[in-house]
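Moderator note: this is an archived Q&A kept for reference. The question asked for a predicted structure of one protein chain; the sequence and the answer are reproduced below.
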Amino acid sequence: MAADYNEEHIRSLDPREHIRLRPGMYIGKLGDGTSPDDGIYILLKETIDNCIDEFVMGNGKQIDIEIEDKFVRVRDYGRGIPLGKLKDCASIINTGAKYDSEAFKKSVGLNGVGIKAVNFLSSFFEIQAYREKKTMAIEFSKGLLVEEMKKPDKSDEADGTVVAFEPDEEIFGTYSWNLGFVETMLRNYSYLNTGLTLSLNGKKFKSKNGLLDLLSETLEGSDPPIYPIIHISDNDIEVAFTHTEQTGEEIHSFVNGQHTTMGGTHQAAFREAIVATFRNHFKKQFDAADIRSGIVAAVSVRVEDPVFESQTKTKLGSTHMAPGGETIRTFVGNFIGLHFDNQLHRKKEIADAMLDKVQRSEHERKEMKGIKKLARERAKQSKVHNKKLRDCRAHLNSKHKLALDSTLFITEGDSASGSITKARNVDIQAVFSLRGKPLNCYGMSRKVVYQNEEFNLLQAALGIEDDLEGLRYNKVVLATDADVDGMHIRLLAITFFLQFFPDLLREGHLYILETPLFRVRNKKETRYCYTEEERVEALAQVKNPEITRFKGLGEISPDEFKFFIGDNVRLAPVLMPPKPKMIQDLLAFYMGKNTPKRQEFIIKNLKVETDIIDDPDEPAVDPEAAAA
């Protein structure tokens, strides 16, 4: 019998209720703090953005941020929110100064939602303004008023605003702040706002040379750039770039001080302009991929009334610099066309070094052409018989409404892939099965991707042979057993992506599937435990339990697997280290041919847990024997 549907079922939510019920519409995903785009960092960013806007308008040269456990405090030294409007600015949606385009013409936050979302999604939220020797403070909890000063008090504090908050665990679950992510955020703010000092628990971030500093620090310790960094700027645009011996592209882009990690129209315009200017200068139609191969760049533009493709502002959708003004493509193209071409004419050493790099990239690409042709023919022949890929319906490079949910699970062996295949959502989840341990490709050339059938089929499944624009899945998930062999396969796969497709990690597409280690159940309930602590807690709460230790994914039935890859899937992002040198050092040590050094490291650091030995009379493991 169909459920009743009448006037009683129609209800309107006030803004506070709506933000708490649908937080993803305002801050993207929630997360537990293990990924830099988790919701708690968006709350912090929204708070700091208001302080940045004050600095941009010429008010206050320092922002102090304190984070201790769950508690966050942000203090700026701007003009301070007008005291009579403090409550409205903190709690009433679509209230703020940023609708006045003269006051905040090229601001980051323009919708009057940001700080309200921080308020509504925090179990504790306090805002205090200092203005003209007076102060007002208001405290909220989950968006509801707790305490309000009736009238302003006198104060000797410098003008500005203080926002303190604790993200609500009722919304975010158990979370923790990764200060490394926060430092990266503040470092980017400093590059884009020269002269501004940002302090995190006393550690200060300040930049003198803007994007030049960003690239210099990014390249520190890695292979040196093949020519000095080109750094050019003008009203509403700043660009810095160079080439290295790496492959692929590494472009950091920003709009109005916002780090657009997903790029957008400004980044596309820059990529296009670099190619066009280089071709025009050398009067030759070089391949675009050859020109951009190895480029490391940073691009910042200021746009009036920017339009982003989501509330979290990670991708610019605007096509014009200002309403009714010139297009972003034309603006960036003209700027690069003039200043980059001037550099090529004035500095022959830069032009020669860049031309040599492009020609070498062209030579390598042509050398690979024959290998690619053979690989494609082999792939075509094996496609009919290849059952390694169980595809899904929605793909990232399509217009499917579920494109952003598309996921590829890379599994070890057929047993694990069988369980995931039966449990998956065929609309958005695909499965690629590795046959055991893949090749350790550290130090090998790109040829191995085509010569190794499994790697070739994997890159074809992902659609990343040429660049990331053809990527077919938004999330690429390594799903291996939680044992030594599974960890080894995981490391080999990560090495493959770092070696040949680092952009997959840079743009946040690679993840590791977390599956439970234990199942604790009785006739009434079942608990899945991902850690030893969760197992102990479950044993204390479940009466007469039966305990199962999952040694491999193949042991988990499809009926159970659907709980681990559904709405509550736990994915740990694989993040790039902040500096390229760290990547090379890690790969060289752990995946290189330095076996004696690794063995020595293992012997020194091997931890033997006596409580995992079944027989108490059995002697402890000898570290040297274990390492051997």
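Archived answer notes: Residues 382-386, 610-628 have pLDDT under 50 and may be disordered.
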